[in-house]
Amino acid sequence: MLVTCISTSNTKLIGDNSTSTKVCNMIGEIIKKDFKETIEVKTVPLVNYNFKPCILCGSCSKTGACIYDENFNDIYSLMGKSDAIFFVVPHYSPIPSKLIMIFEKINEIMYAGWVNNPNFTAPITEKIVGIIGHGGCPENNKILKYYHDNLITPVARTLKSLSFDVIGVSEEFKYGTAFGLKDENCCKRVEDAVFPRIIQDWELIENRIKPLVENVIDKVLSK
Questions:
Q1: Strands 84-90 and 40-45
Q2: Nearest to residue 154, comparing CAs of 166, 171, 143?
Q3: pLDDT band (50, 70, 90) for residue 17
Q4: With contact defined as beta carbons under 8 Å apart, do 151 and 170 qualify?
């Protein structure tokens, strides 16, 4: 089984130390501890990829890939080979820009492929997906619901429109799970820096994401 974890953060200065990428690595640790099956987990930080915008040339209708963007093709191919995919999404924009570029190209591949062949099926059709959203506000039920409704839900609806199978954790959080900061002391102002230093409570984060990770893997194993 192959599980791909996509860190959608584009915080270049932080790189692999971003919360999103560390959460991707945590997903692998949870899977290793909780499941006896042989499961390969790959972390894909989008900060390391440079995508080119879709220009609606239509060439993907025949190739099933983007003739101008090998970075995108690498990720799209990996998604097609994966049994499950996690998207870890930070709340610094409605949807991070590189994730939108991936969605745009998948949409055009599916549409152009269908126009060219009504029986076309994309390799990502019905792939099982878990979405984890996070932000820099201290946690409470209102904040978690805000992240779910305003960050996770738009991502989930886009994925569902592209034929992915989105997994949730409960009726209230039906499209994924979210986490924030433990309290207001976890956000520290730094002199001469634009952004504050964020102190994460990794035990809290693991407790938040573990039910979703287990639901996603259980769904794959039950197929």
A1: unpaired
A2: 166
A3: confident
A4: no
Bridge partners of 132, per DSSP, are 88, 177
Query: Which residues are 219's β-sheet partners?
Result: none
> What is the per-residue pLDDT across 38-97, written as a single tens digit (0 to 9) for each?
999 999 999 999 999 999 999 999 899 999 999 999 999 999 999 999 999 999 888 999
Distance of CA 42 to the CA centre of its chain: 12
DSSP helix/strand/coil, 223: coil
Task: Supply the angle between the helices 70-81 and 97-116 in degrees, to the nearest 10.
Answer: 80
Closest CA to 27 of 220, 219, 208: 208
Q: What's the pLDDT tens digit per position in 135-146?
A: 999 999 999 999
Distances 202 to 80, 176, 181, 206, 219 between C-alpha atoms, Å? 31, 18, 10, 6, 25
Report the alpha-carbon distance of residue 66 to residue 76 in Å, rounded.
10
**List of domains in the chain:** 2-222 (3.40.50.360)
Angstrom distance (rounded) from CA 41 to CA 7: 13
Q: How far is CA 219 from CA 44, 79, 95, in A?
A: 22, 17, 26
